[in-house]
Write a structure and sequence with these properties.
Blueprint (H helix, E strand, L loop, with lengths): L8 E4 L3 H12 L4 E5 L12 E2 L1 H8 L4 H5 L4 E2 L1 E2 L8 E2 L10 E3 L2 H14 L3 E4 L2 E7 L4 E7 L2 E7 L1 E4 L6 H5 L6 E2 L4 E8 L9 E4 L3 E7 L5 E7 L12 H12 L6 E10 L2 E3 L4 E2 L2 E3 L5 E2 L7 H21 L8 H25 L3 H14 L2 H12 L23 E4 L2 E4 H4 L5 E5 L5 H9 L9 E7 L6 E6 L5 E6 L4 H16 L3
Parallel strand pairs: 1-2, 1-12, 2-8, 12-21, 25-26
Antiparallel strand pairs: 3-7, 4-7, 5-6, 9-10, 10-11, 13-19, 14-17, 14-18, 15-16, 16-17, 19-22, 20-21, 23-24, 23-26, 25-27, 27-28
Helix pairs in contact: 1-4, 1-7, 7-8, 12-13
The structure holds flavin-adenine dinucleotide.
């Protein structure tokens, strides 16, 4: 076990987001510890799947094969339970599908990845308080071996929607309150052959039913009228009553292995950073799980934050780099909150909404509309705007380019596996390498940015691309650009994103 003095970052919460963040920080050479109150991983999966942007990002860490191994994928998803499906194969991505990876599996794979990278994970350790001063953060922890405190330079709250860390940092969590109550059970059905599958809207709400395995089905009711006392648990009797009320039949549900309930409250942290305390995942944003976007959104937080926080700890972060985490990640979360609220509005059992649903269903038959929704749910159009005039690719997620380098064939995702930035030099004139040397690139150790000379048939006009560790484009120039534009622009971008060497 690492000495308690040695940690740079306390990660509170070992869900999918905390585990990925731990791995990202290790990759960048800092020392995180994950403090997770559950002694074991939960056997119950909230989420079922991963969308295209998550898959693209996992590919940039060499993890995609592990996630795809033995997992089914599907091309369609629902939007508000409408009759027409969203078609993910329309996406401009090599991963135009959703991967079936239950949350327990996703968490296991990410935990293995974090441990494999050397992250320390302490299960059964509950954080009861977090405070900060000018030099660092301190957490009070209750663990089986007794209570203790831990100090580090930073703390990140990955501790879910009811985040203690968020409250300790005094960060507000405004949003819309819950009006819809979802009652969910993983249950055995009396007659699964004749159970309604998918999403069914009735005059009282919605029924959701999917097969989990040979024995269990997940059923859920979305009730627009009957709420719940926040302090009460859900039992089978209440779930069955809700099924009868909304569907007219309780499907003979019995032997629940998991019962849970939640509302459509949608909230977002006012800011993702307060001094040395940051938030990621559900601690920063919660919403109704329509469209299966929550894990995906949180994983993108972790990819965005990891390298920036590591840069700050290593002391080379340029001014404003860590704050760019809040700026860049607020917008995608706000958009997810908006689209989940829109879906809830379309699900409303009010007969007035029925015609709206018909209209939307009709619109979804148009490829452009369907693609728009697929892009929205899968997160593939997320970009991080860079101020001022710039190249068309600036701020976009760098594409899966096929490359030829001196070492043979490779892809751009493969160059990002070790978590350093990549300066892709397609120019062949030497001016990009020169600017990189002037910045001091080859003397930085460990490498913040790898300079890779390559050829690429897909981008014949492109001279070079500077890709951040999370896969987004920080600088790009075409061959037609003058030497001055290329040199000055590249050095400025290197300084802005990777500091001075
Ligand atoms: C029914 C349902 C279905 C869903 N389906 C999908 C889906 O298909 N796709 C999708 O992308 N998302 C889905 N979501 C959302 C998804 O489950 C969440 O967005 C995701 O779990 C967030 O991950 P996280 O790591 O941020 O937080 P969590 O998974 O909530 O993890 C937080 C962790 O912190 C720990 N913790 C909390 N407080 C402390 C403390 N004080 N000390 C130590 N540890 C602490 C908790 O034990 C927990 O392990 C669904 C959600 C629900 C409820």
């Amino acid at each position: 076990m690492t000495s308690d003095q040695d940690f740079d970052v306390l990660i509170v919460g070992g869900g999918p987001v905390g585990m990925l963040l731990a791995a990202e920080l290790r990759l960048a050479g800092v020392r995180p510890v994950v403090l997770e109150r559950l002694p074991e991983r939960s056997p119950h999966s909230k989420a079922f799947g991963l969308h295209a942007r998550s898959l693209e990002s996992l590919d940039r860490r060499g993890l995609l094969a592990r996630f795809r191994d033995g997992a089914r994928s599907w091309n369609n998803g629902h939007f508000a339970g409408l009759d027409e499906w969203v078609d993910f194969s329309l996406l401009d991505s090599r991963h135009g599908y959703a991967l079936l990876s239950e949350q327990t599996r996703t968490e296991r794979l990410l935990e293995e990845h974090a441990r494999g990278r050397g992250a320390e994970i302490r299960r059964g350790h509950e954080v009861t308080a977090v405070r900060q001063d000018a030099d660092g953060v301190v957490a009070d922890i209750v663990a089986p071996g007794g209570a203790y405190t831990l100090r580090a330079a930073y703390a990140v709250g990955c501790d879910g929607g009811r985040s203690l860390v968020r409250r300790a940092a005094g960060i507000g969590f405004p949003g819309t309150g819950g009006r819809v109550t979802a009652r969910l059970g993983d249950v055995v059905l009396a007659d699964p052959e004749h159970a309604p599958m998918g999403m069914e809207r009735t005059g009282r709400g919605l029924l959701f039913c999917v097969r989990l395995d040979d024995t269990y089905h997940r059923v859920a009711t979305f009730d627009f009228e009957r709420g719940k006392n926040p302090d009460d648990d859900l039992d089978l009797e209440e779930l069955s009553a809700s099924l009868r009320e909304i569907w007219g039949d309780d499907l003979g549900a019995h032997s629940p292995r998991w019962l849970s309930w939640f509302t459509d409250s949608a909230c977002q942290a006012e800011r993702y950073r307060e001094g040395r305390i940051l938030l990621a995942g559900d601690a920063a944003h919660t919403h109704f799980p329509v469209g299966g976007q929550g894990v995906n959104l949180g994983l993108q937080d972790a990819f965005n934050l990891g390298w920036k926080l590591a840069a700050e700890i290593h002391g080379w972060a340029p001014e404003g780099l860590l704050d760019s985490y809040d700026r860049e990640r607020q917008v995608p979360a706000r958009k997810v909150l908006e689209n989940t609220r829109a879906q809830i509005a379309l699900m409303n059992p009010d007969p007035y909404v029925t015609d709206l649903r018909l209209l939307f269903t009709d619109l979804m038959r148009r490829e452009q509309v369907n693609r728009h929704l697929a892009e929205m749910l899968s997160g593939v159009t997320v970009r991080y705007p860079v101020e001022g005039p710039g190249h068309r690719l600036l701020g976009d997620f760098a594409r899966d380019l096929d490359l030829r380098t001196g070492d043979g064939k490779c892809t751009l995702p493969e160059l990002l596996h070790e978590g350093a930035g990549v300066l892709l030099d397609l120019d062949g004139t030497g001016r990009i390498g020169e600017a990189f040397e002037e910045w001091g690139g080859s003397v930085s150790a460990p490498a913040r940015v790898r300079h890779v000379r390559a050829e690429c048939d897909e981008e014949p006009d492109l001279a070079g691309l500077l890709v951040r560790p999370d896969g987004y484009v920080a600088w790009a120039a075409d061959r037609a650009a003058s030497d001055g534009e290329v040199g000055d622009g590249l050095r400025a971008a290197l300084r802005a994103w990777f500091g001075t060497v």
